[in-house]
């Protein structure tokens, strides 16, 4: 976190210096130079809009220029209706945000190339139909009359710089709040995001809306800068140019997006001789950048500018003792646990799941009692992970019921179940590999940050800052409890597989769960690390008053760790009981563990 804070401070300092220099230089700037710089600012804002959507939220848009066009045409129309400036730009941006959210609706049901095709189609419709209708334009273009306050190109440039500064501030507030972390979580893995309490669908639409808002502001500034608005300014190829700039700048890098956009916009305005070749240059860089430097221009800027500069004095933080760390991540008080005390946390009855003609689970009944570590074993394809997904809300059972602390889980959406005190890990490590360990701890605590909303996040209110400090403390505490404090600033992808598993467990316990569901936590982990993790889980059960349900194939390890075991086979319950009872069950021996392992377990 310290490195991120340092880069953020240095980046903020550069922004302040750059804007101060720009404002001061305007005294000596010609109108033509102001016009060129104005196009650079408009391009930068438009590309930032796509960077938020693609880089933060992982949603593809191949029709981003259409949203810029909506902002431009709307601002022109509002100006024609004598709406005062700058309300024209604000209203146009809000309209673009609304349209962008509507265009984003298909992303609730489809993903990837299908979403890209949908946005591309909208871009084409906007270019050839919406922007060519009589209600949009007369004789091919709309003329925009500047009010006296922005009568010159210099004044428009100043307005654009102020708009860019405001957007950069908003963008920063989004990145460093639960809003941005929800975007990042959805980008990396939607199932993990939902398990952490993120409302995946609304989060996608929110990203589209913010992206449309940025684009609409760019469009309004464009309208006042050029004083004419026409469809050829917002083509599909313009959108593809924005995509190229975002990828070349580095997905998610605001600095890379601004610089790449500024370079291409400057070439088009100042080097008219090669301006026609800009699309070819963009295509070439778009092809080579993911191969040579996947992180993009933003990575180079960070390495060459931000990191080598002297560090700011880091704030001192008290060292957390293990006992204090345990207190900090203990399960919070939840009303349901007080009003409905139950002996068993999780009760499943006659659960059945079908995928078409395939029966994944049938007539599964089991319970997980408070304070126990319960094992779930069985051959591959037996339905163990399907049962986990049914509890988590990723799969809807066709029959049966699942209750947690007396509450019907099947009546709740996926994101709502995290707030009940359920945390889980996944077969494939459910962390963001490109992010630092500490950032993943913050991602995991989304459900605990619901105390502040969008307005508080954008305004950085005292309540928001208080919650963020609490989350950071919990993140540090979870890493202390698991023993990963030495890797706080390390990117997850640089960790060993064993430490990645530990980091995922740390992320899960940072939320203060009562039921911890671990899906093959020992997979790919060496024998020594497995034993250490098993010992730590046993300690955590007592220290944090946890109840643990674990899927694992290593039968001796499960037998040493768990007090009760369920064995699945072919989607049904094969056996249940104490470790000795299950290991000596003839059906379990013949179907799953085999004679040699049974004899080894008996000898042990």
Please render the helix and strand layout as text.
Layout: H1 2-25, H2 31-56, H3 64-80, H4 87-103, H5 113-128, E1 141-143, H6 153-175, H7 178-188, H8 190-195, H9 200-226, E2 228-230, H10 236-249, H11 254-270, H12 272-275, H13 278-292, H14 297-306, H15 322-328, H16 335-339, E3 344-355, E4 358-369, E5 373-377, H17 384-392, E6 399-404, E7 407-408, H18 414-418, E8 422-424, H19 437-444, H20 454-459, H21 462-482, H22 497-509, E9 515-519, H23 527-543, E10 547-551, H24 555-561, E11 564-569, E12 572-577, H25 579-583, H26 586-603
Parallel strand pairs: 5-10, 5-11, 8-9, 9-10
Antiparallel strand pairs: 1-2, 3-4, 3-6, 6-7, 11-12
Helix pairs in contact: 2-6, 2-9, 2-10, 2-11, 3-4, 3-5, 3-9, 4-9, 6-9, 7-9, 10-11, 10-13, 11-14, 15-21, 19-22, 21-22
Any overview of this molecule?
Helix 19 runs parallel beside helix 22 (497-509). The chain has 3 domains: 2-306, no CATH class; 344-421 and 513-604, Rossmann fold; 430-512, 3-Layer(aba) Sandwich (Rossmann fold). The strands form 3 sheets. A 6-stranded mixed beta sheet has the order 8-9-10-5-11-12, with helices on both faces. The protein has a 4-stranded antiparallel beta sheet with strand order 4-3-6-7, covered by helices on one side. It contains 26 helices and 12 strands. The protein has helices at residues 2-25, 31-56, 64-80, 87-103, 113-128, 153-175, 178-188, 190-195, 200-226, 236-249, 254-270, 272-275, 278-292, 297-306, 322-328, 335-339, 384-392, 414-418, 437-444, 454-459, 462-482, 497-509, 527-543, 555-561, 579-583, 586-603; strands at residues 141-143, 228-230, 344-355, 358-369, 373-377, 399-404, 407-408, 422-424, 515-519, 547-551, 564-569, 572-577. 58% of the residues lie in helices and 11% in strands. The longest helix has 27 residues, at 200-226. It is an alpha/beta fold and 604 residues long. Helix 23 links the parallel strand 9 (515-519) and strand 10 (547-551).
């Amino acid at each position: 976190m310290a490195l991120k804070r340092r880069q953020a401070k240095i980046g903020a300092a550069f922004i302040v210096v750059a804007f101060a220099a720009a404002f001061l230089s305007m005294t000596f700037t010609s109108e033509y130079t102001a016009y060129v710089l104005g196009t650079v600012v408009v391009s930068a804002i438009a590309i930032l809009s796509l960077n938020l959507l693609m880089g933060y939220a992982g949603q593809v848009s191949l029709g981003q220029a259409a949203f810029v066009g909506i902002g431009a045409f709307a601002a022109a129309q509002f100006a024609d209706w004598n709406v005062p400036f700058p309300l024209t730009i604000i209203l146009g941006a809000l309209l673009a945000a609304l349209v962008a959210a509507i265009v984003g609706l298909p992303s609730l049901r489809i993903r990837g190339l299908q979403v890209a095709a949908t946005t591309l189609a909208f871009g084409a419709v906007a270019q050839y139909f919406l922007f060519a209708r009589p209600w949009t334009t007369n004789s091919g273009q709309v003329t925009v009359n500047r009010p006296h306050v922005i009568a010159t190109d210099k004044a428009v440039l100043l307005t654009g710089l102020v708009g860019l500064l405001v957007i950069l501030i908003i963008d920063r507030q989004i990145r460093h709040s639960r809003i941005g972390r929800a975007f990042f979580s959805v980008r990396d893995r939607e199932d993990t995001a939902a398990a952490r309490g993120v409302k995946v669908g609304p989060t996608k639409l929110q990203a589209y809306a913010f992206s449309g808002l940025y684009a609409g502001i760019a469009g309004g500034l464009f309208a006042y800068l050029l004083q004419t608005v026409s469809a050829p300014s917002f083509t599909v190829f313009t959108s593809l140019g924005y995509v190229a700039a975002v990828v070349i700048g580095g997905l998610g890098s605001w600095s890379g997006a601004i610089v790449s956009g500024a370079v291409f916009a400057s070439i088009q305005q100042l080097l008219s001789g090669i301006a026609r070749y800009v699309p070819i240059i963009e295509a070439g860089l778009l092809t080579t950048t993911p191969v040579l430097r996947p992180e993009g221009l933003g990575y180079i800027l960070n390495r060459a500018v931000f990191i080598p500069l002297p560090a700011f004095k880091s704030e001192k933080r008290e060292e957390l003792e293990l006992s204090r760390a345990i207190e900090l991540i203990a399960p919070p008080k939840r009303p349901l646990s007080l009003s409905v005390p139950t002996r068993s946390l999780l009760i499943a009855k006659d659960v059945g799941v079908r995928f078409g003609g395939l029966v994944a689970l049938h007539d599964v009944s089991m319970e997980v009692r408070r304070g126990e570590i319960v094992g779930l074993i069985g051959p591959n394809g037996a339905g163990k992970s399907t049962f986990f997904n049914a509890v988590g809300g990723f799969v809807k059972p066709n029959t049966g019921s699942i209750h947690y602390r007396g509450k019907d889980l099947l009546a709740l959406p996926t994101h709502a179940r995290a707030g009940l005190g359920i945390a889980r890990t996944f077969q494939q490590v459910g962390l963001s590999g490109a992010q630092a360990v500490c950032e993943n701890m913050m991602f995991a605590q989304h459900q605990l940050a619901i105390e502040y909303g969008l307005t508080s996040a954008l305004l950085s209110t005292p309540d928001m800052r208080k919650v963020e400090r609490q989350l950071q403390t919990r993140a540090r505490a979870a890493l202390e409890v698991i023993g990963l404090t030495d890797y706080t600033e390390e990117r997850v992808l640089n960790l060993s597989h064993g430490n990645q598993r530990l980091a995922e467990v740390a992320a899960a316990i940072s939320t203060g769960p009562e039921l911890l569901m671990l899906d093959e936590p020992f997979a790919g982990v060496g024998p020594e690390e497995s034993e250490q993790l098993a010992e730590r889980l046993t300690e955590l059960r007592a220290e944090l008053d946890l109840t643990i349900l674990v899927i694992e194939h290593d039968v001796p390890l499960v037998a040493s760790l768990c007090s009760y075991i369920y064995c699945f086979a072919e989607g049904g319950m094969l056996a249940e009981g104490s470790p000795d009872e299950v290991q000596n069950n003839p059906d379990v021996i013949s179907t799953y563990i085999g004679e040699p392992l049974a004899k080894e377990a008996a000898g042990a």
